[in-house]
């Protein structure tokens, strides 16, 4: 499944290039965004220029910088924003840093950056900013397999995104929620949120994701075909006709449907078109899927030579991507693809030379090549074994980091629950530290809430039952029910709403 959010990289680059050309023709100077680096950030930047830099490093636009370079750039932006008293700029800078940290697998540091973003955003009235913060939190928790917390953060992001009204971002957070539910095998919810994403902002990829759902859950090729045709019609519109990324992803997935229908020749034609577009869009993971899928089609057609050729392409590209991921470097995708093609070209050239040499030299040269290839194959096997050991070491290290982070989060939750159960006077203070956003939402809804009422709301948020609250606050169950009634009236909770759900998802 693919998630698409915001304008396409190609169209954006064309628009920026056009504006730069007009600007330099009219004024004969270099435009602000021609060179994106730490040196391009100075104390003389205006608020609009700070916003432009933050947008350029947010992931919405393709830039040829590593994750580390983007982080350093945003750290400098934060310093300038702080001098100008621009809290929103500081918060967005920390959001960008958090995004690139989790892309590098540094999940604990990502959470620290997002925590700083929350502090800088405190007191601001900006739904889109809070939507971004919560969605980045959701992405971190999803990747360390804390799916329930990821869904909770994502729900908050959706709530803010609805206030902001950005349909493209709503598509993004809804589609993300579908993927989170997919990890929990909640198939009905998966489909529902893919439809919500597409209803917010219909895209070819939205219909493609729905089609893929039908293929993977019941092999419903008719429903898949209907949604693919909707995707193709959207690709013909002005909005998407130049969107090579969406075309590549749609063609790739549709070729999968043709393969399922055993229409192998047309499947290969679609894969060929998708491969060409994926190169232009600089999307290595789409190329990776195409190479593996084409190898599978050629296998079904008993074309061993073509199958091995695409398996080689798949292996070389996958090794390149894995190597860059292990080092935490966001290198240009173009370089990876060009290196991949160069290696394949060199491999093909060597094979041609070997064939010619065999023809000229005969049996003696054949024997030489045979033993040479055996030694070469052995070296490759040794290299593969080394890579496997290195990858196992990296995976083990990541597991240790993930478990450590889970332990810290669970310890905070357990500590708050313990304070509640022991009726500790420190309970409300600790709850505010662990759940600052929820605490301040309560204060905003009703500033005159008593400490006892805040404590009661906190226990409901922590999922204490009526019986539990009665036991740990030393009152009767009937008293707890009366408190719920008074709280519902004071907070204007609708009569049809469940008070526990309402407290968990404060508006």
From TrEMBL:
<feature type="transmembrane region" description="Helical">
    <location>
        <begin position="352"/>
        <end position="371"/>
    </location>
</feature>
<protein>
    <recommendedName>
        <fullName>HTH luxR-type domain-containing protein</fullName>
    </recommendedName>
</protein>
<dbReference type="InterPro" id="IPR011990">
    <property type="entry name" value="TPR-like_helical_dom_sf"/>
</dbReference>
<dbReference type="InterPro" id="IPR016032">
    <property type="entry name" value="Sig_transdc_resp-reg_C-effctor"/>
</dbReference>
<dbReference type="GO" id="GO:0006355">
    <property type="term" value="P:regulation of DNA-templated transcription"/>
</dbReference>
<dbReference type="InterPro" id="IPR019734">
    <property type="entry name" value="TPR_rpt"/>
</dbReference>
<keyword id="KW-1133">Transmembrane helix</keyword>
<dbReference type="GO" id="GO:0003677">
    <property type="term" value="F:DNA binding"/>
</dbReference>
<keyword id="KW-0812">Transmembrane</keyword>
<keyword id="KW-0472">Membrane</keyword>
